[in-house]
Amino acid sequence: MLRAGKLSAELEAGNLRYLRWDGEEVLRAVSFIVRDKDWGTYNPEISDLEVHEDDNSFRVSLTAVAGDGDQSFAYAASIEGRADGTLIFQGRGESAGGFLTNRTGFVILHPIDGVAGEPVTIEHTDGSEVDGTFPVIIDPLQPMMDLRALTHRTPGGLTVKTLMQGDTFEMEDQRNWTDASYKTYVRPLALPWPYRIEPGEVIDQTITVTITGETTGARDAGDIALSPGRPTGQVPPLGLGLRPEDIDRTRDRFDALRQLGPAYLVLHHDARAGHDADTLRAMLAIAEDVGAAPWLEAVIASVTDVAAADEIAALGDIAARFGQPFKIVLVSPAPDLKCTLPGSEWPETPDAAALYRATREAFPGARIGGGMFSYFTELNRKRPPVDALDLVSFTTSPMVHAGDDRSVMETREAHPAIVRSVTQIADGTPWAVGPSAIGVRDNPYGEAAKDNPRNIRQAMNWNDPRQRGLFGAAWALSYFADFATGGASSIALGGATGPFGAIHAPADFPQPWFDEHGGLFPVFHVLRGLARLKGAELAPLDLAPAAPISGLCATTQDGVEFWIANMGPEPAEIGLTAGAEVAVLDAATFQSAASRPTYFDQLMDGSDTLALDGFSIARIALKLSKPDLG
């Protein structure tokens, strides 16, 4: 933690996070980053790190090398913070042998809470100034371009000017990827990428932040008491994803999957990967065995209308042989699985309306869904003709840009904006989200998601260790709560087994502890509990914005249930209503829960307060007559 008077910032991996003045956040991050040709961010090897502090200033200097066995980029960075509200961050570097990159230079993150919808003064590279606004509805493109400086006010009344020198900057709305920030970055996307930094070419950039004014201070969560907000409808059905590569290990876990009780399974089909009638039949058998409605998620490889219609008709013939089992059929052209950046030419694909018409003809009686099998970003940039659809769908991952715990959990700050934006896009058509998980099932921005043989936390992980921990269970509960109370008609999370699963099965990647003991991941118990609430009256929790707790309230015939999670590492104390019964899943009960599918069915009498450790989950039941939640 760096401090100079009222100015503070966290130094992490040579960059700055959480710039604050008198406790109020003014910027989420200022980072000098080096990326590869697939948008992966290198972890720099830092040396010569020196930090000097006194009451009125701090100074940091370091040297670093970023790269891999094929290329490297060396740079020096200096950071100076002053008690008068000035912060200067300079990065200067070059590559001796040349360097292929999609981005090398500064990235600045503005927070969204209290900033979205608020004014900003934009200074362009020619010195001209215009008045702008941080977007409320998520901008699919770049809301601000050709930038030299941005000046905004914080919710507490501070004025913050961010000056960017050394290149042309522009902004993208990172809420597209559920990041909790607006990102201002170096080098416009309209320029060619990847690009090459030639040997001897010097990258020299400086960010200067100037803070003026007085703040009203940081917000406090206050006492945490559970109370429901206004009802928003019913708890939507919970589904899981199922991919052909997980068929065998999922078959071996039928009993646990039946206990989980998903309402539906999203069956992924991509002929380019060798999927055929046999893999569809095998996945349908799993869905039938566990009593889950089968949804078909079909990638269409053909890029012309006629060929795509023929491909879909062939799939329809297979479904007809199986008795037309699919309740919902989702289709997407294969090129749409990859990102098309703003300013780039869209690849050839079938006409969307024609694609959906062909699907409706091939699958009579099924509801037809479309949108994107990749992230909300792509849905926002290429919006489907919703009048031709019965369902709009998309997925998300919290690890597209950063893989650390705090960044992953912060993504829920963007969920309300996703809800507002997708509701506008759908324009009255029901929308569904998922299958989503912490890990990324596909990489629209590069060749593939990252393998993770060392079992570490990193952006773009395919198999992420937190899927198997309390962290993953807390994230999943919060995710379901945010989108359920936001109006999602259905929500699918992860899968049964595999890298996005809830149940351990042997795999070709490490699963520490579970590889020795087997059993159920903590997220299993969350998903089972939420699946059993399908159709119950739903209400969000009425909590202060700074509260570390997330979850939902559901009213059933038996009474009221609260499902809550501590979203941070520090303990939290929650006030309980008299008569509450409680079950808690935490570090102390982790191993016991791994072998007990009905773990959360055993409730115990609660006291006046509940101490919930970091990333712990609680089910709280009130066996009362139905209250007035209005």
Question: Topology of this protein?
Answer:
Layout: E1 2-4, E2 7-12, E3 15-21, E4 24-34, E5 45-54, E6 57-67, E7 72-82, E8 86-94, E9 99-101, E10 104-111, E11 119-124, E12 129-133, E13 144-153, E14 159-165, E15 169-173, E16 181-186, E17 195-197, E18 203-212, E19 224-225, E20 233-234, E21 238-242, H1 247-251, H2 254-260, E22 264-270, H3 277-290, E23 293-300, H4 305-321, E24 328-333, H5 352-362, E25 367-375, H6 376-381, E26 391-395, H7 405-410, H8 415-426, E27 431-436, H9 470-485, E28 490-495, H10 514-517, H11 522-531, E29 537-540, E30 549-556, E31 559-566, E32 572-575, E33 581-585, H12 590-593, E34 604-605, E35 609-612, E36 617-622
Parallel strand pairs: 19-32, 21-22, 21-28, 22-23, 23-24, 24-25, 25-26, 26-27, 27-28
Antiparallel strand pairs: 1-2, 2-3, 3-4, 4-10, 5-6, 6-7, 7-8, 8-18, 9-17, 10-16, 11-12, 11-13, 13-14, 13-15, 14-18, 15-16, 20-29, 29-30, 30-31, 31-36, 32-35, 33-34, 33-36
Helix pairs in contact: 4-5, 9-11
Notable traits:
630 residues; eight-stranded parallel β-barrel; 16-stranded antiparallel β-sheet; alpha+beta
Describe the protein's architecture and organization.
18% of the residues lie in helices and 36% in strands. The protein contains twelve helices and 36 strands. The strands form five sheets. It has a 16-stranded antiparallel β-sheet that branches. Strands 21-22-23-24-25-26-27-28 form an eight-stranded parallel barrel, surrounded by six helices. Strands 20-29-30-31-36-33-34 form a seven-stranded antiparallel β-sheet, with helices on one face. α4 packs parallel to α5 (352-362).
